[in-house]
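Protocol step 4 of 6: structure prediction from sequence.
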Amino acid sequence: GLSGLRIGVIFNALGAIICTLTIVFIVGWKLSLVLLLFTPLIVFSGIVQGQRLSNTKRNPTGSTKETSWIEKGGMVSVQ
């Protein structure tokens, strides 16, 4: 679901996009068209990256399992 952290990240990203578009429109409208052209690609890559990160959390494989064992060993030795 949408937790407080996710909503904050979404608002932060929307604010950054709006500020960027405003600045780019002021500087040069041609540059803003280029930015708008690549915006869907950037959004799509962000979605794919988020899905991969969430899948890694759910189903650790290979080096991720090994890392978690190393982290657990470090926590035990600290305690």
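Step 5 (inspection) to follow. The radius of gyration is 19 Å.
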